[in-house]
Amino acid sequence: xxxxxxxxxxxxxxxxxxxxxxxxxxxxxxxxxxxxxxxxxxxxxxxxxxxxxxxxxxxxxxxxxxxxxxxxxxxxxxxxxxxxxxxxxxxxxxxxxxxxxxxxxxxxxxxxxxxxxxxxxxxxxxxxxxxxxxxxxxxxxxxxxxxxxxxxxxxxxxxxxxxxxxxxxxxxxxxxxxxxxxxxxxxxxxxxxxxxxxxxxxxxxxxxxxxxxxxxxxxxxxxxxxxxxxxxxxxxxxxxxxxxxxxxxxxxxxxxxxxxxxxxxxxxxxxxxxxxxxxxxxxxxxxxxxxxxxxxxxxxxxxxxxxxxxxxxxxxxxxxxxxxxxxxxxxxxxxxxxxxxxxxxxxxxxxxxxxxxxxxxxxxxx
Length: 366
Ligand SMILES: Cc1ncc(COP(=O)(O)O)c(C=O)c1O
What we know:
- By secondary structure, this protein is α/β, with parallel strands linked by helices.
- It contains 13 helices and 12 strands.
- It has helices spanning 11-14, 43-48, 64-74, 87-98, 117-122, 145-150, 174-183, 213-216, 244-253, 261-272, 274-297, 318-327, 347-364; strands at residues 30-31, 81-84, 104-109, 125-130, 156-162, 189-193, 220-225, 238-241, 309-312, 330-331, 333-335, 339-343.
- The strands form 3 sheets. It has a 7-stranded mixed beta sheet, sandwiched between helices. The chain has a 3-stranded antiparallel beta sheet with strand order 9-12-11, with helices on one face. It has a two-stranded parallel sheet with strand order 1-10.
- The chain is globular.
- The relative contact order is 0.17.
- Pyridoxal-5'-phosphate is lined by residues 35, 86-88, 112, 162, 166, 193, 195, 225, 227, 233, 238.
């Protein structure tokens, strides 16, 4: 096997680990490792899946009905909406459209684990700006937007801002983002990744869609997804709202026809059932509050949790802590040497998380 000659792979790609999903949960375990929505799909959404175009035919390459619908929902033209197979696809498309060899892409770190590979795959250079170091409990894990603006050079082509930040939880405020956008040159793309936007309750949080930032700043594109609040992770559908020309560039680098008819139908049915789905979001937010308050009462330092997950900064005890959760039938997402992200899942999972966290807090918090 060692002498086998294989096709030459670009060194930057060969050095990357291929994407590996977290372990599947056993029959009695709760899967709290991928920030999925724990609720079963709505019957109306399942029903919509039976009304797709015949599967021997290609889907509508433009996802026209969904773009029309989202345009009406947010008061923009369909051309100012772009739909793809998950918002992670749109991240790839936008980075490929803006950044290449010699260019830089800035993002906060630690943040969404897909970000580091985006510039690398495009041949560009990723620039990680550490999250803000703050004194005092429950206040870490925030973007340092001043440092991110300071990191801009004449090679910067794109900046990703993740709010709420996956995996730590805090939001970027509206005032912070406004000041940041003023500091970034107008020809640098700013991707505002709001994958968890529907779970946000902080009144001062930036909301790229409500604030219509892309209208005043055509270099800002807002990303949303149907995977989290709307519970369609398995169907892969996400969207961007922004300037038509910027989104045209994403449409150009994207693989055509990757949004299936099933995904488009389910997304439209989810918008029809939005009120019902947002009640589920409210239930998840209630569970999040119970979880955060319980963890803090046990003595954990938990940053503000504004997504559907909480962050435990377990530092160099992370692997041990994750093992304790797995022992308790809870599949969580450890980031070795840093911390553990736990999704807010089924109602019964909340107590189970608190039982394990309570039993390890004194031994495993750094
Ligand atoms: C911050 C962030 N952005 C984007 C995504 C991608 O979501 P999807 O591709 O399912 O729309 C995720 C998924 O976990 C995420 O955490």
